[in-house]
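ok so for the tutorial part 2 we go from a plain amino acid sequence to predicted structure tokens. step 1 is just haveing the sequence, like this:
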Amino acid sequence: MTVVAIDGPAGAGKSTVARLLADRLGYLYLDTGAMYRALAFLALREGVALDDGPSLAALARTARIGFTADGRVLARDGDVSEEIRHPSVSAAVSEVSAHGEVRELLVAEQRRVAVGRDVVIEGRDIGTVVFPQAAVKVFLVASPRVRAERRRTELAAKGEHSTAEETLAAIEARDRFDSGRAVSPLRQAADAVEVDTSGMGIEEVVATLEHLVRERLDGRP
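step 2 — the prediction. this is what the tokens look like for a chain of 221 residues:
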């Protein structure tokens, strides 16, 4: 079992890069953020209050959140891959993921899925909490403005539009929330390699990480 942990703030490119890196390495790809998004989607749909930790935890226990072989996101045995990217879910997911009992349940599931497998797993607390023993830890960063512009491009592709100022404000608010929350705050692991993707294309980032992973694993005892 080999774990490659990729952490970083919103808009740093974690999901795209982790998925492509997993393909290059022949590893399983696990998007932990999608699990929290799936729970947030269910909470909104079923009227569970976002500040009600016990009720959210109860929902998580019965949500049957998982993934298909090709990476589609499942909840309640239905495909929610598109629904979890809606702006309403994006606005709710930070609050949902801040509850300690919710994180304990989903972290346990993330560890269960990865057992006995080679996996690239991305999120915000993978290298510090979920897999602190990961063979390779990467912390992706980019300037807030670069991350905001990436987010605007992503939204525009879905027919959703926001101003540069609105998107930047949302990114900065998410950064403050993720870094300041009491449970599993966004932190760079002491032994993680920081990669600034601000001036890099996706292919360059993936190639950089692939080289790093192979170099680390080749030198592993």
